[in-house]
Amino acid sequence: MWRRGAHQRLQCWTGELDPPAAPAAGPPPLQRPAPLRQRRLDERRPGRDPARPGPRRGRHGHPAPASAARRTHDRARHRRRRHPRPRRAHGGRGGVRRGAAGPRRAGLRHHRGGGRGGISRAPLPPVPHLLHLRPGPSGRRRAADLRRPPGRPGRAGRRHLDAVRERGPDRLGRARLPRRLGERSRGPPLRAGPDDRGAAQSPADLRALRRRGRAARRGRPQDLHRRDPLRPRRRGRRQRRAHLVHHRPEGLHVSDPTSHPWWYDAVVYQVYVRSFADQQGDGIGDLPGITSRLPYLRDLGVDALWITPFYTSPQKDHGYDVADYTDVDPLFGTLADVDRLLEQAHELGLRVIVDLVPNHTSDQHAWFQAALAAGPGSPERARYIFRPGRGPAGELPPNNWDSVFGGPAWTRVDDGDWYLHLFDSSQPDLDWRNPEVGDMFEGVLRFWLDRGVDGFRVDVAHGLYKEATLRDQERPKEPEKLAESMVERVLQDEPMWDQPEVHDVYRRWRRVLDSYPGDRMAVAEAWTQTADPMAMFIRPDELHQAFNFGWLGTPWSADAFADVITESIAAVAAAASAPTWVLSNHDVERHPTRYGGGPVGLARARAATLLMLALPGSAYLYQGEEIGLEQVDVPPESRQDPSWFRTGKPGRDGCRVPLPWAGDAPPYGFGGAAGTQPWIPQPEGWAALTVEAQLADPGSTLAFYRQALRLRREVLAGADDDTAASTDGDVLVVRRPGIRAVLNAGTYPAPLPEGEVLISSGPLPGGVLPPDTAVWVR
């Protein structure tokens, strides 16, 4: 008998191995009688001899693996038919959904189909469309359908279904799908498609589902999990986890990829106005400077640019303290410069997103100046959050809130009132419970939409409303545990963030955006605790996208990347939107420095970028990352971030240093006459990092970004959104239609995947995937 092991027998069962040599002649071995159910199936199948029952066999006559054998106990079979459960996979510690093994590769199976995964408006069939692998009671990864069709409900089951339907949709607007009676709830909430909310499954539909399931079980071997050739064999316990995200089963209606709006899978380049390009020669970037560099952005391969605030401002927070939302600060140009920029960008095929700051204004805004002049209790002060102080003489702030920039979030004015500012004291918070505020910002939206902007980035989108009572924030008693960043703050008690009323604002804005042609959009800067609250900002009647800050903060780990990919795509699936991915922006440390700095940090940054560009949805790039800029240690005398003056900490200036364009000494072609210093000094030694130098080097980071963006358009354009992420130790594999993106986040080389290498983030010596390297394979 052939004894080469279970794995080889499994390959024989699936037809991957040649048949073994014929056994020596002799009497056939004795066989156990087939179970009753197997005999009945044999009698019904054409071409089978009912007089010779036997066990199930592979293509070459070898016995089927044990996991494919059927149980024979009638009572157990009856119980399974009433309460089916997913079976453990064969040959691995991480379970995989029945039928998940691919025909030629192990791991998770793609559902192949046309289209890019957009959800059509046709009614959806009642079939499960999401699968999420999560830890079971033993801590191992198990597979469970998020939407499993229940068995035919009895009387009690019908009462259960009715009770679930009466509850209505959940807070994300998704249908509440029933669990089987007696089954405990585990894992993330059940998710429905965008067009079947509240749709009940009829008994006929459920019977049809069961018939299809039985037919599928008869038609192919089940519970097969072959080892991926990408992964080396290991002794002992295999540290393998698998995540299936954004899976689309057969029968789900999918829209034509060309029906997706432009922002759905766009690559957006963030331009920090002060530091991009200086055309006026004063050491500060401006709008004409951006216009002069638009061909560079087109050649880089991005689809749109997001421009930080250029409105009239005293520049206490570099434009995020707005004094006039419908005019341009002379420091940056004029309204005519905006019109010229929009016209030329559109001619080059680039979209333009502008920054909008609705949480607060400048203290020089006409409204705030009127509020100071009007006095306590006036309608002018009702546009902001003024309150009397606490204490016998009102000498204490109204509550214990702190500013994000450090220090109290309240400042007292001469008449004794206090005003709230969650950021700098020059940025008083608006009171969005006052209808005048909403009316004013609708006018601002229409002003810029009429001029031709394609979208808005909404600053502090989660902060417009504060808890009505303005109660104290609950804090840990130990001072060292106090939050120091916005990310940490939203993980604590948060009466100043993420109040439910904020979503009414964005529903109103969505109606405004939808009233204009050309797929106008808005993306939220919403710092939330998890991906699910983030998804609330992108429900179908609210904003279009939200920044995925969970991805930005992911540590260098294959498992961590896989978890965020899984959670992010699952969270946005219910909203029929697409995820966003971002690694750096003007408020955080540049990711090469976060990943360790130096050559290691740059290698990891390039690998993370290549992985990010393989994912479905939109990718946001921050200026300078395409040339490998790291965080700069700005001298104290040159720091300008308001958080530096309030806390004494370095702040954000290090990621805002002006770009080096050409030359071998500052200002490196940034603008102005030779010797003109930019508003933040550039370090010596940037000559090799200039755009001019890297354009001449085919191995530069700039050349790598341009190649990766070109391949993203060529390989993934028109692909559906099916995405599977799996890890084996420190190696992460992300499967998209047509490619596999493989990341080695460990310290040892890994086997290079078989196939055509399209691009790698670094050299591939000796046919292996080095540490801190990513590759696309077709």
Tags for this entry?
Oligo-1,6-glucosidase, domain 2; 778 residues; Transcription Regulator spoIIAA; 21 helices; alpha/beta; single chain
Spell out the blueprint of helices and strands.
Elements: H1 6-13, H2 36-44, H3 74-82, E1 131-135, E2 141-145, H4 155-167, H5 203-219, E3 240-245, E4 267-271, H6 273-276, H7 287-292, H8 294-300, E5 304-307, E6 311-312, E7 324-328, H9 335-347, E8 351-356, H10 366-374, E9 386-388, E10 410-412, E11 417-420, H11 435-451, E12 455-458, H12 486-489, H13 502-514, E13 521-524, H14 531-536, E14 545-546, H15 549-552, H16 558-573, E15 580-582, H17 591-594, H18 598-613, E16 618-622, H19 642-647, H20 691-695, H21 701-716, E17 723-728, E18 731-736, E19 739-744, E20 750-751, E21 757-760, E22 768-769, E23 773-777
Parallel strand pairs: 4-5, 4-16, 5-8, 8-12, 12-13, 13-14, 15-16
Antiparallel strand pairs: 1-2, 3-17, 6-7, 9-11, 10-11, 17-18, 18-19, 19-23, 20-22, 21-23
Structural overview:
The structure is a single chain. The protein has 778 residues and is an alpha/beta fold. Among the domains are: 267-356, Transcription Regulator spoIIAA, CATH 3.30.750.90; 362-429, Oligo-1,6-glucosidase, domain 2; 628-699, no CATH class. The protein has 21 helices and 23 strands. The protein has an eight-stranded parallel sheet. Helix 11 (435-451) packs parallel to helix 13 (502-514). The longest helix has 17 residues, at 203-219. Residues 1-17, 19-82, 86-167, 174-201, 213-240 and 243-256 have low confidence and may be disordered. It holds the Pfam family Alpha-amylase.
